[in-house]
Backbone:
């Protein structure tokens, strides 16, 4: 009887030991699984705030000279002198070319002689007319009086004709000096000293360009123009004075042109082939940094609109071309928002709907996380260019208190 009791006790004890080992192993596995879970990924976020921001358009453009003139001779002759250095700046009225003027000086002298001859006949005709006027009723006939009057008129007409011929000869003589019509920069001379040129020839002697100020010809889509007008009409965009404001340039090498330009004119017609219209801006160009033909990109401020700024680095486009960005909700879970309408404001996208004040936009770290992921948001700031994210530095730990 005692033996059976001892055997039963041993079986119960063994069962308890096995159960204990099983529970211990299960607890160990659960602890290991819990220890393997990854902590939420840190992401940099920016709190959204609605405000009025400039509305800009990024437009391609080409530089064009403010004034351009192809220099051609207006009289014929042989080039005697080239008075400018090719590619140099000249002032208005500076001599560019000198044409042999001996023939034109002779024509002036001949015209002067003809004028003197014509003027010499006027006093005689005046005396005859006065004499016939006194004698018209005492011996001179009316016909003789009328003939004397005609003779005087012819003499005066000859003087006027001689003066006109002299004026033309003097003009042709002056045109042997080919001068700059305005200040600018010359191009290569296509003719040399000794070459014969003709009046109003097809071939130009050189080209003169005025580079300060300088024009920038921009191209804008007519669809964007219609959207802008609709937004202005709806009151979403404020355009002070109804005019385009500042225009800023980015050069071919990516540098910013330091001078702000202004609108000069806009074409009141749309191209039938490209669906675009032209805008011309004018910029001061004192150092000739911009040269005709250069490609530039212009940021045109067309007005102001209330909305939220999304840095370009924090946004992407979906398959339909719509703007998307990732946000962190109140539960620190990632969600993607789609914006059907967006505009450009500097280096940012400007949206008016789909965001509320205080919403947290992910600006860094969103490339490796998907929707539904739990994250650890870290407050950050974006610089004025919209490119660099500057996370605030963690405060230094206070030194431990001494016992």
Residues:
């Amino acid at each position: 009887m005692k033996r059976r009791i001892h055997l039963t006790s041993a079986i119960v004890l063994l069962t308890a030991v096995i159960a204990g080992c099983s529970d211990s192993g299960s607890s160990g596995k659960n602890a290991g699984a819990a220890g393997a879970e990854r902590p939420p990924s840190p992401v940099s976020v920016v709190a959204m705030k609605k405000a009025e921001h400039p509305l800009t358009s990024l437009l391609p453009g080409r530089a064009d000279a403010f004034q351009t003139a192809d220099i051609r001779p207006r009289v014929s002759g042989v080039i005697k002198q080239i008075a400018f250095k090719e590619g140099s700046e000249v002032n208005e009225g500076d001599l560019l070319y000198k044409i042999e003027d001996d023939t034109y000086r002779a024509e002036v002298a001949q015209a002067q002689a003809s004028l003197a001859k014509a003027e010499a006949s006027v006093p005689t005709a005046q005396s005859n007319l006065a004499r016939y006027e006194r004698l018209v009723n005492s011996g001179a006939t009316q016909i003789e009086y009328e003939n004397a009057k005609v003779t005087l008129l012819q003499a005066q007409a000859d003087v006027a004709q001689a003066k006109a011929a002299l004026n033309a000869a003097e003009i042709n003589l002056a045109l042997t000096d080919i001068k700059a019509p305005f200040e600018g920069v010359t191009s290569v001379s296509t003719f040399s000293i000794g070459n014969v040129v003709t009046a109003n020839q097809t071939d130009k002697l050189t080209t003169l360009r005025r580079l300060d100020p300088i024009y920038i010809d921009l191209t804008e889509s007519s669809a964007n123009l219609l959207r802008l007008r609709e937004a202005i009409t709806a009151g979403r965009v404020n355009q002070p004075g109804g005019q385009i404001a500042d225009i800023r340039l980015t050069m071919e090498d990516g540098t910013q042109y330091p001078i702000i330009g202004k609108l000069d004119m806009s074409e009141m017609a749309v191209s039938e082939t490209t669906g675009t219209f032209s805008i011309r801006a004018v910029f001061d160009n004192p150092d000739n940094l911009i040269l005709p033909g250069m490609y530039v990109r212009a940021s045109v401020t067309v007005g102001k609109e209330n909305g939220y700024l999304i840095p370009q680095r924090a946004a992407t486009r979906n398959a339909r071309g719509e703007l998307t960005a990732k946000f962190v909700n109140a539960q620190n879970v990632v969600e993607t928002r789609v914006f059907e309408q967006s505009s450009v404001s500097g280096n940012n996208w400007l949206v008016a709907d789909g965001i509320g004040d205080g919403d947290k936009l992910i600006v860094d770290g969103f490339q490796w996380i998907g929707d539904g992921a739990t994250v650890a948001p870290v407050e950050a700031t974006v610089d004025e260019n919209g490119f660099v994210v500057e996370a605030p530095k963690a405060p230094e730990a206070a030194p431990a208190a001494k016992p």
Observations:
- The chain has four helices and 23 strands.
- Residues 47-63+212-390 form a domain with the Elongation Factor Tu (Ef-tu); domain 3 fold (CATH 2.40.30.170).
- The chain has three domains: 47-63+212-390, 74-97+178-203, 102-174.
